[in-house]
Fold each of these.
Amino acid sequence: MKRRHLIAATALPLLGCVEPQDISGGFSGANYGRGHMLRDSGSWPTPHVLRKTKILIAGGGVAGLAAARALRLQGIDDFALLELEDTAGGNSRGGAVNGIACPLAAHYLPLPSDAAPEVQDLLEELGLRQRVAGRWQYDERHLCHSPQERLFFNGAWQDGLLPLQDVGADTLAQYRKMSVLVEQLRTRSRWTIPCSGRALDALQRELASLTFLAWLDQQGLTDPHLRWYLDYCCRDDYGAGSARVSAWAGIHYFASRHGFNVPGTESQEREAVLTWPEGNAWLTRRMAAPLKERLQTATVVLRIASVKHGVEVDAFNVATQTLERWQARRAIVALPLLAAAQVTENAPDFLRQAAARIAYAPWLVANIQIAAGLTDRAGAAPSWDNVLYGAPGLGYVDAMHQSLQSTPGATVLSYYRALGDMAQGRRLLMNRPWATWRDDILAELALAHPDLASKTRRIDISRYGHAMAIPLPGQVNHAPVPSSARMRFAHSDWAGYSVFEEAFTLGHKAA
């Protein structure tokens, strides 16, 4: 470490000791009181309110909303969707801080390939793409504007996230070797998003049986800069690092999308992505809008049971504080596996076994409202995605980036941290006070933005104890999702990892 960087790093903890009393905020996002009703409560009395529908969807995340849309496309209007939170969307919900829209979790969608025709159809329906002179074109207003991403490395900003400044010839050689290996694997196997329902070949099964870190060891890819970047990519997409996720997942990150670009020969920016100030909530809000009264929010599903003539669902209506019983001919259970196994009466073996195998990554998302543009360190221009090398967090995205404002000003920075590598990550997430998280986050980002604390006005923190499935070795599921006589199951958990395309496709197919 160079002396100036060492001084900055050692000053970092001192910044965290200063409590900026004028910064307001608190915890927001997922409602844990509702989510823990099943765990903390005993048996429930028989509901006195009876409601009927033809098809009932439990869970209003991306999979549940996709299922509802697919039913509407089939001309089926007699259905209801029950959602625990006050708004649908799951990990693709959005919010606002003092009037500035921002994501509460997922914040972008890569342009889907032909392997995801259902997602492509959705984007066409929403006007995000259209065929012009025989070719598909995307509405540039919704594509992430340049510059797309930058890295704070060796005391300065650089374009792209692969560390480049002052790295040696050995590091660059390892970058090139990784690029060659990824390209070889891309040509030998089929890598698609979504992947659920598609069988792995022998090579992919071998990669799915070991950790990404073990595979890197096998290949002699030991450079610390390369390993940091690959670990960051795993934490960013899967909630845990290269020592936990499978080698299949680590390779899939690149082979299914943009490959691994060699520095100096191609742009270090990722492939084009769709993004909005409120993140993927732009999509889920439009998916939810046509449902109207069929969407029942603030409703906690407590029990799902197969009965003689269909399905019976008991739920707690938060608004009326009453228990309701729904009767339907069939149900689509679009809940996380943890919840689905808990609420399904006499859960089938395939559901209980799948829920027992899964591991979830806790996540934290902090939306930081700043009153004025930050004083930047030298290097690349302000970008949408901003990452600090070696930091515990995953950096932040700028909610005002898509506005194309000529000079940085008041905005919301959405900061992300995955805790899937920590043995007590969920307990830490839930037990640390808001002020401790506030000071920790401000101290981390102060290395790149020394004036951040003085310009911050509010920090809203969303906590997700079971945010996403981690694709551990042996955990990615490529078999078709099992079903029972009257129930279909749909959630990204069934794929073994959490991305929009997986959830949407599984929900669509379940319907």
Amino acid sequence: MKKIHMLLPLLLVACIDAQPAPDVSERSSDEFTIEVVTNELGRPWGVATLPDDRYFVTEMVGTAQIISDDGMVAVTGLPDDILVMGQGGLLGVLLAPDFSNSGVIYLSYTYGDQQANGTAVYKARLKNSALVDGEVIYRSTAKVGSAHYGGRMVMLSDDTLVLSLGDGFTYREKAQVLDNTLGKIVRLNTDGSPAKDNPFHNKEDASPEIYSYGHRNVQGLFYDAPTGKLWAHEHGPRGGDELNLIEAGNNYGWPLATTGVDYNGASITPYQSYPGTELPVYDWVPSIAPSGLVIYRGELFSDWQGDALVGALANRFLWRVDLDGDKVVGVEKLLADVDERIRDVKIDRDGAVLILSETVQGGSLIRLTP
């Protein structure tokens, strides 16, 4: 399905599948309790709640912080080859399922230089505020440029790690070619090797780690354990941001099919759908620049169970996509009067919604409760 919204009062709504698009409602911040945990972050990108209720936050500037009631402490032992350039830097953070015992944590970041760079995964153990025994376990296909790195990570129920990778911006045709990892979602073992039951593992001239392809820049990824479904959203160009259900081996269309147009207004493709590619569950025109994604499974917002919460960088809302199974039945813009770019969304241990926001001055970690 297809949707459009920013701050403009009159916007057309369309449906790729010709079904009626759900109405969009709006709720302001005064309907929630907003706790600012800290507003002293530098370009925050990812957040994870540690078992002792501290927060681990990555910052694009190449640093990470641990936040507790006692304040903020810089993390040591980070990768020594983080490339901070354009949209690159220190990106995602993911705790191993057995983190309470092992202390294992995964970080995604950009590596390389101006001539050749990509996305890497770093595996280490966290001891207090130090990363120890760190090693780089994966590097994506290198390219030239400083945009579209992906970088979101989730762990599936079989303890394989899924990582999103962007198309490198100027390499969009590569998203349809299987001999590289640009514009792909990949699935790895915890040592960084390709999972052996990946759909293209035994295909000649295909990168064996590829799980799905035809993506532009996936910056939201969530595995919904109760349903076993893997959700993702990705940036379109001018329009065409997509919420997708990810299945092994599927082609999600970029750049063969999109509802967006290029930044100069030119057509990218004549197709909004294309044979052999998947339609989005929902999409936005104009772009909201989605970043951060969860399917809500907490206890504090009982009427949000199973709904998608999507952060937005461009129009600076938290979007709630009301899902009935795989079908969108409503859309709600939350925190409409909070003028900050939302970079990441997570669910805290008590069911509160954790939000990383950006401003020109820096960034904040926010807890949202009823």
